[in-house]
Amino acid sequence: MSAGIYPNRQHFDNLSYISDGRDRISYINDPYAATSHDAPFDSRGVVLRPTDLNKSNRENNITYSYRSGQDNIYGYNNAAFSDISGVDSRGPSMRTPQQNIYNVQKTFQNPKNNGKASRICSKYWYIFVLLTLIILVAIGLGIGFGIFYSKHKSKCHLSCDPSERLVHLNSTHCECQCILIINECEYEPPVCGQFPCIKFNGTGYECHCTMGFHHPPSNNDLTRCEDIDECRNSHICGENQICHNTIGSYTCSCQSGYETIVSSNGIICQDINECLDGTRCSNGHCINNNGSFTCVCNPGFTPDIFNPLHCDDIDECLLSNNCTGNNEICENIPGSYKCICARGYRRDGHNNCININECAESNTTCDINSRCEDRNGSFACCIKTITNQCIECGYDYTNSSSNGMLSFAYTNLLLTTDLSATVTAFAIANTSLRLNAIKKSIKKNKLKKVNNHVRRTRMINGQSVETGQFPWIAALLIKSDYYNSEPRYVCSASLVSSWNIITAAHCLDEQHFRKQWELTREPSLFKDIFDIRIGVHNLSLNSTDFLQSQSYSIANFTLHSDYQTLDTEHATVKNDIALIKLTKRIERSSKLDWICLPTIVNVHDQNILKVVSYSHTDDDSIQQQLNIRVLDNHQYQAECQRQLNDIAEDAFCAITTNNSSVLGVGDSGAGAMLFDNNTHWQLAGVMSKTGFQKAYSAMTNVSTHIEWLQSLVER
């Protein structure tokens, strides 16, 4: 850059200029420059040139400087020299741009040397323009021809193999060069697998599909082979044959009911005669068909809808009353039925059913303390009384005086001359002497009760029971040999005959029992762990009642076949009843008797029943009672279901009449008793399960199982 100052001009005071390094000098901040196209002139009207600017005797005493080597500096584009008149350039120029241009043109017309050159250029300017155009056209044609030639240069016409490619060496020469050929058929593993690979004369390959295979018909992919399903042709196999497609082929086999036979005509399928097996149809006969057979039921049988090879027996006794004779009943037999005499009757010589007098024909029908009384079709074992009234079962011994009952000891002394019976009577009478001795020892030692497990809550707030009032109440205990050397009370039960007691099935459910109790010793048989006491008022181990009571063992027991286990708290109460047979017969007495089985009449809603079980009174486990009310209508069903989760049709829901009295899980098996016609007690229910509120309980309805019980009970 070069910079200069023009001190003698007013508008150049302190004005700096800058050269752009090319052909002009630019000035900055010159407010007096009329236009950027005005040029400076000397006193002769000639545009200043670099050579002139070097002169030392120029006018206006302009001081300047410029960069060395750059002498093509012109003032015609310099705003600093805009004043081209003869007026003092220190004052501002007042000319208009038009006047400045006119003065410039006029100056160029000055007939000087410089003006002459300008006129020559002005006269022949079109020649220069024409030459410029010619040069531009020539350049364009050259470029166009080059492009055209590159696009339309001569092509090579060689024909190369697919394995070669055409290569242009120059604009006129070319040749075929070999290219790298990929042979897919040599790949490992083979691209066609088990099928032969065929390489094309170029790129690509084909898998040759062998017999049983073809290219996918959906897209005809030559590089794949898939299995042909020959079994789509329904006629590919013979008659009664089934086609089985295999990889690359197929096989034929005989249909079910046919067997393969090799003949001169090849393999054929022949029908199998299934009826040659005489056991093919149960309770029916077989009829052979082509490829199959049919079971036709014998008379008296009907087809089983779940098993076509079996025929179910028709129970003709349920369809109609086929036996109309007196005291006859219908007995179903396989495929038919027969009419037999009812229980307690037998046929005479005239084919009539007459009563059997069991009392006359058997001396062991009733025990020694009972009087046998014949009934039509049955008999009764009546308790011996002065009034000769027959009390068969369920007698209320609290009202014995009003019925003329005497104690068994003195009654037997007055009414029998049998020495053995007399000895028995004296033994019973002498009991009081032994009781006194026992009472003395009791005073010295605190009574030890049968321990009650903390999980086995018993009856709470029950009412007291008179001694001997209910002589059929039984208790199931774990023998001391199997539980910490002391008996353990587990369930209640009810004596219903000389041989049998009834309790809840879950009390004898071994799996459920072992979850509740941990035995200290294993018995040889599960039934051997139980000790049964009957008619004991005080269950404490050192009580007089317990010491004088007799221990009974279980000969066998039967759970109901449809019993549903109570393993969980939410289990359904269903058929929770069991019958125990004792190892020895019970001899009836005023302290040991049985309760009556119910009639076929069911319990009804709002019936009041009595439950007797063992509860805690001070240090004793004594019989107590409480009353429950049957809830057997729709009004109470929702609450019973909520309390007990679920009970089956063979059970009923009950609630204690006193809200403060409740039953516990330790009262399982206890009998719910109904006093029938104010004459005798009958067993209406068996305690099965308590509700969330212990006032609610589920009772198994004994009357719904009366036929099952009667078939098992022995007198």
Can you identify the CATH class of the largest domain?
Mainly Beta
**Overall radius of gyration:** 66 Å
Poorly predicted parts: 1-39, 49-112, 400-456
N-to-C span: 146 Å
Tell me the major beta sheet. Answer: 6 strands, antiparallel, barrel
Describe the fold and architecture:
The protein is of the alpha+beta class and 715 residues long. It folds into six domains: 10-110, no CATH class; 232-271, Laminin; 274-314, Laminin (Ribbon), CATH 2.10.25; 317-356, Ribbon (Laminin), CATH 2.10.25.10; 360-429, no CATH class; 432-710, Trypsin-like serine proteases (Thrombin, subunit H). Helix content is 17%, strand content 27%. It contains 13 helices and 35 strands. Strands 30-31-32-35-34-33 form a six-stranded antiparallel beta barrel. The protein has a six-stranded antiparallel β-sheet with strand order 27-24-25-26-29-28, with no helix packed on it. The protein has a two-stranded antiparallel ribbon with strand order 1-2. A hairpin with a 4-residue loop joins strand 25 (488-495) and strand 26 (500-503). Helix 7 packs antiparallel against helix 8 (419-429). The model is unreliable at 1-39, 49-112 and 400-456 (pLDDT under 50).
Q: Any key phrases for this structure?
A:
715 residues, alpha+beta, Laminin, 35 strands
Compact description:
By secondary structure, the chain is α+β, with helices and mostly antiparallel strands. Helix content is 17%, strand content 27%. The longest helix is centred in the first third of the chain and has 27 residues, at 125-151.
